[in-house]
Design a protein that fits this description.
Elements: H1 4-24, H2 26-32, H3 37-96, H4 110-116, H5 129-141, H6 157-164, H7 175-184, H8 195-219, H9 239-247, H10 250-280, H11 295-324, H12 339-347, H13 350-360
Length: about 375
């Protein structure tokens, strides 16, 4: 690797070479004849220094531009992934109600696998242009306060359904699903019965009971009545705060409250600082600020709008890449998990438990139920 001293020497030699060319090559000599010689001397030094800088940093900035383009194409793939996730989730609701069959789906947990490899899945139609047009509408019309690609657990039927009915964790019912359901009325799918899960649980309970019986025989232990006490989970609701109120002094609680207020303010200010830094690096000389009641929200929404505009710009390119790989298992941008390891995980535990439950119930050892 080139040392710092070697780099300085190389740049200085290049500078001298450029100065020599400017002073001796005929094209430059003839050009400079129209100017005062004293001004030409200063220009030659200034130009040579800049030329060295352009060669040194130009390639770096070209790479940065390409990296930024890749970021927007990645955003385009996030759009394609979300389109397919919603289609698969709708199909999952129908499959759980035993209204349809789906390729590659035998048990509920198979949806976990396809969540992370959604663009491989052939059991739903591939992305079509009208769906991209609708997603662009979503990008333009939905709230800029939400990062359009900061979503998770898109096939978690239990959590998404509970969030829809306002039972817990409302963030699971993500803005894209809400926008889609409002447009097409597909929120009615949440009303469908979960027949398939109930059947799986029937067999899993037989399996668990058998495992418990075997365990009891081995240990010769008495089966105790399962505890009905609440699960200790400090992350749910205000459990942690209530624990302090009930079990600690008022002084300690006041320190805790002050600590929380301070860090909440810090967190509120951290994100806009990062967003301002990103906005400052943009090539746009005049970027309108999105109106909001709070400057932090305005900065966040301005950055989000810029991101969405760029994703819309590069979505056609992402879509073409997607079309070029239709029907393939490929490492697409946003592919989150090693499919082979995940497939092994899915074949363990739950699958074996259901099969064992089927056998215990006198049924064939398969998933045809």
């Amino acid at each position: 690797m080139e040392s710092e001293i070697e780099k300085i020497k190389r740049k200085e030699e290049f500078f001298k070479q450029i100065v020599h060319e400017l002073k001796t090559e005929e094209r430059f000599v003839n050009y400079f004849k129209q100017f005062d010689p004293s001004s030409v001397e200063g220009f030659i030094t200034y130009y040579a220094r800049n030329k060295v800088r352009w060669y040194e940093l130009g390639e770096f900035y070209k790479r940065q531009k390409e990296l930024k383009k890749q970021e927007w194409i990645l955003g385009g793939f996030s759009a394609l992934i979300q389109i397919q996730q919603k289609k698969l989730f709708n199909a999952q609701c129908l499959w759980r109600a035993e209204m349809i069959k789906l390729e590659g789906i035998e048990i509920c947990r198979d949806f976990d696998y396809w969540q992370y490899n959604i663009l491989w899945y052939q059991g739903i139609p591939h992305v079509e242009q009208h769906e991209i047009d609708f997603f662009i509408r979503y990008l333009r019309e939905s709230s800029l306060e939400n990062n359009f690609d900061r979503i998770f657990e898109m096939q978690s039927h239990y959590h998404i359904k509970n969030a829809f009915f306002k039972k817990e964790y409302p963030s699971y019912y993500n803005p894209w699903y809400q926008f889609y359901d409002l447009e097409f009325g597909t929120h009615s799918l949440f009303e469908l019965p979960n027949i398939r899960k109930e059947k799986e649980e029937f067999y899993m309970n037989l399996h668990r009971q058998e495992c418990q019986r075997i365990s009891n025989e081995k240990t010769e232990a008495t089966v105790n009545t399962p505890s009905r006490l609440k699960y200790f989970n400090e992350r749910v609701n205000d459990f942690f705060e209530n624990f302090l109120k009930e079990n600690e002094s008022k002084e300690l609680y006041s320190y805790y409250a002050a600590y929380q207020r301070f860090h909440k303010l810090c967190n509120l200010n951290d994100e806009p600082v990062i967003n301002i830094y990103k906005l400052k690096k943009l090539p746009s000389p005049n970027l309108p600020i999105v109106a909001a009641d709070d400057w932090r929200t305005a900065v966040k929404m301005t950055w989000e709008k810029y991101r969405r505009d760029r994703v819309i710009e590069f979505l056609p390119e992402a879509y073409q890449i997607y079309l070029n790989h239709l029907g393939e298992k490929w490492d697409y941008p946003g592919n989150k998990e090693n499919p082979f390891e995940d497939e092994k995980r899915l074949k363990r535990g739950y699958r074996k438990g259901i099969i064992n439950g089927r056998i215990l119930n006198g049924d064939p050892p398969d998933f045809n139920f």
